[in-house]
Amino acid sequence: MYNILTLNKIAACGLKNFEAGKYTISDNCDNPDAIILRSFSMHEMELPESLCAVARAGAGVNNIPLDKCAERGIVVFNTPGANANAVCELTLAGLFLASRDIVGGIDWAKTLKGKGAEVGKLVEKGKSNFAGCEIKGKTLAVIGLGAIGVLVANAAHALGMKVVGYDPYMSVKAALMLDSHTQIKAELKDAVAEADYITLHLPLMDATRGMIGEDLLAVAKKGAKLLNFSRGELVDTPALIKALEDGTLSSYVVDFPSDEVIGLPKVVAIPHLGASSEESEDNCAVMAAKELVEYLENGNIVNSVNYPNCELPRTANTVRITVLHKNIPNMIANISAAFSGKNINIENMVNKSRGDYACTILDVESIDDAAVEEFKAVEGIIKVRVIK
């Protein structure tokens, strides 16, 4: 029996993937085997010894202590692409909100309540205060060409925009999905300098924190429009405010409001609605649950953010062993020697690494508890899971 702890409300269609009788699901569990969550912050949370995996029903994982989990042998998963269409659609709405003062116009129209027959005339007189431009024929720079960025780029092209993109880590899958009309730039500054609109679709990490700052904004077109549906911290706030004040940026649409930007002229602050669609929440919940089931029952890692993806088809009549370990020399040899020293035959094996960490999955004929305990003591091994 596996114990699943939910730290947020998770869509029922996702939880249905945990087979009754094999899993217990609770929002109050002392010894969980796995956690499934959305936006709950785990940074101050004490990680139980029983915890093997964490699945984020969404793409961003800055609410999870990834390094701490990796050191403890806790595999962290996310759900890339599951909410991509929802974020893409809101980004398209952001393009229009940045182009025409729709929000300001709506707020102004509310002030006309009670004007009776005069409303029509007042509307015609005042509407010019909220005029804007069309997006057709304008240039959009898509910074980050993952699942969301590719959808945005393709949709923008279909709407008549010229699209340039920047992503030094673009995957082969993303490249194949990207419309051939998108021009890929080798340098971030080149993409920004050409753009009437700039939209951000990349993860928040040390290398990207504050990346939209004074240096980059200095090469932007006068009056460019910035959209941020990734993470607020990607943009340096003082540099942003200065750019809005001096006209470098004519508008900023952000899905991650902060106290510094709420209420500023030219800023449209949306309350983190990017993935807030029924379909997105369902897709993320289903994907996160399936990732946990696959890891708990088969030891396979798919869509991890702190360990390498590592999969091995199950072999009949064998015991599955998943070993999480440091990515250091001679580990494979040491693992093999530990098994051969116990006269344990390895039927199948696969090894993958990612940065400082690695995973080795093995199928063996049998193994006893004493051998497992000795095996755990091998230098460099972080966690051993035996699945029978």
CATH superfamily of the largest domain: NAD(P)-binding Rossmann-like Domain
Uncertain stretches of 5 or more adjacent residues: none
Structural class: alpha/beta
What is the radius of gyration? 25 Å
Count of all domains: 3
Write a concise keyword list for the protein shown above:
alpha/beta, Rossmann fold, 31% helix, elongated, 3 domains, 7-stranded parallel beta sheet
Structure notes:
This protein has 388 residues and is an alpha/beta fold. The protein folds into 3 domains: 1-83 and 278-307, Rossmann fold; 84-269, NAD(P)-binding Rossmann-like Domain (Rossmann fold), CATH 3.40.50; 308-388, Alpha-Beta Plaits (2-Layer Sandwich), CATH 3.30.70.260. It is 31% helix and 21% strand. It has 13 helices and 16 strands. It has helices spanning 12-15, 66-71, 84-99, 102-110, 119-126, 147-158, 172-177, 188-194, 214-217, 237-246, 278-298, 331-340, 369-376; strands at residues 2-6, 23-26, 34-37, 53-56, 75-77, 139-143, 162-166, 183-184, 197-200, 224-228, 249-254, 267-269, 319-326, 346-354, 357-364, 381-387. Helix 1 links the parallel strand 1 and strand 2. The chain is elongated. The relative contact order is 0.12.
